[in-house]
Design goal:
single chain; Arc Repressor Mutant, subunit A; Tetracycline Repressor, domain 2; TetR/AcrR family transcriptional regulator
Length: 201
Amino acid sequence: MRVKILRSTRNLVQQSGFKGATVSAIAEDANVATGTLYRHFPSKSALFSEIFRTATEIEVRKVAEAIENNTTVTQQLIAAVNCFSKRALTAPQLAWALIAEPVDPIVDADRLRYRQAYADIFEQLIAAGMQSGEIPNQHKSISAAALVGAMAESLVGPLSPPNKANTDKKKPLVTVKDKEALINSIARFCVQAVTGQEYSL
């Protein structure tokens, strides 16, 4: 039953964010009574926190895996940044929920921890680049945190749900061409930020 509740909650978050994952909607989707939900989770905040942690663990793992088949640090950095951006733009509602959607403070605390998990990946890449001479000496932990912040902030606008300013509901907020340009721009910025060199993708 617990797994069923988690599955329904994740599906709802993926469709309409945490805002759409109300207790009644979760219970209806999972075909359980609301009381059953609270027997497995002490609060909706605890449920959301578990959904957030599980989903973000997958994303962090995918970014870590993306660097494995690349040789130079620059190639690894590009692969990691591109993986983060592509996965976010492929599932924009879920990415918005994970990156920026206003939600319970317990999830905000989870966000900080998982931003650090991403930063750890980039810190290791920067350290390796400094050792190999590909990247100039710098404060690797600050640079890594800055990269994570830049990636997330660059995607907030494109991932944002439609608002009153978006009157044309049929027109996609981000076209395929826009996505490619955005992904390349983020990667280019990140590489230039840590190498100090212009880079063309």
